[in-house]
Amino acid sequence: MRVLVCIKRVPAPGARIVITPDGRSIDTTHLGFTMSPHEECAVAEAVRLAEANGGHSTVLTAGPPEAEEQLRYAISVGVDSAILITTDGSDWDAIRTATAISGAITTAEDRDGPFDLVLFGNESADSGGYQVGVRTAHALGRPMVNGAKAIEVDGEAVVVRRSTDTGFEVYRLQLPAVVGVKEGINVPSYPTLKGRLASKRAQPEQLEVEAPPGPQQMVSMLTPVEQISETVMLGEGAAAAPRIVDVLEQLGVV
Which of 43, 114, 138, 191 is buried deepest, with most CB atoms within 10 A? Predict the structure, then answer.
């Protein structure tokens, strides 16, 4: 079984985001980078499925040369090989990204055979567009389910379960298929010493894919207004009771 997992290089969670003076991109000078939490789980799931079904796992990303850091991390936790779609480092829209990924998948499959399963994170941690996986599946003509909380291969099909407000939905997709993985499907593993050594020796394949800009265009980026919370002591003991009542009345509780 051949499994491909697609990831994205994103700013590390909790980092302070600074927008460039033109308001159209992020100043990455002092930023650390990682992969999205959903994609960490997708990587772990790709490794599990490939090992359980006697197959091969591949990780793919589109980005600048620095994105090799995320590819090597995926290899350090058990992925077998890596593909980098080289870009100029700018943030592509979902249409252009999906075009590049589907083109790279087609190129790899023409050479090495089809991927039985292509995994994405449910959404990226930075833009959160929920679009790339769906658009890639559509371009490849393959069935797709997003929000997966469980994946099992059953012969020539994959059974996907996702949670709803009232329980679970279960889907059966004929392979080859595409699945969007949601955080919580598993507990991502940490790199082992053997994995770290393998990631240093790995030579990610670099692909150049024709992907014209999509119709979406960045106009400007805005940072949200920082909300500062203050703690006010209303008093101590019984003397604070009238103040507490006043606050509850202001909130409409009493």
Answer: 43
Determine, yes or no, domain membership for 249: no
pTM of the complete model: 0.81
For residue 178, the domain's CATH number is 3.40.50.620
Distances (CA, A) of 73 to 15, 64, 166, 195, 197: 20, 16, 37, 9, 11
Structural domain harbouring 139: 2-207
**Cα angle, residue 114 at apex, residues 112 and 118 outer, rounded to 5°:** 120
CB hemisphere CA count around 164 (13 angstroms): 7
Q: Residue 254 burial (CB < 10 Å; 0-12/13-18/19+)? A: exposed
CA distances from 232 to 13, 65, 242, 252 (A): 30, 50, 15, 19
Q: List, for residues 193-228, the tens digit of each pLDDT value.
A: 889 999 999 889 998 888 887 777 777 777 777 777
113 closest CA partner among 32, 56, 180, 183: 56
Pairing of strands 157-164, 150-154: antiparallel
Instruction: Give the total number of structural domains in the chain.
Output: 1
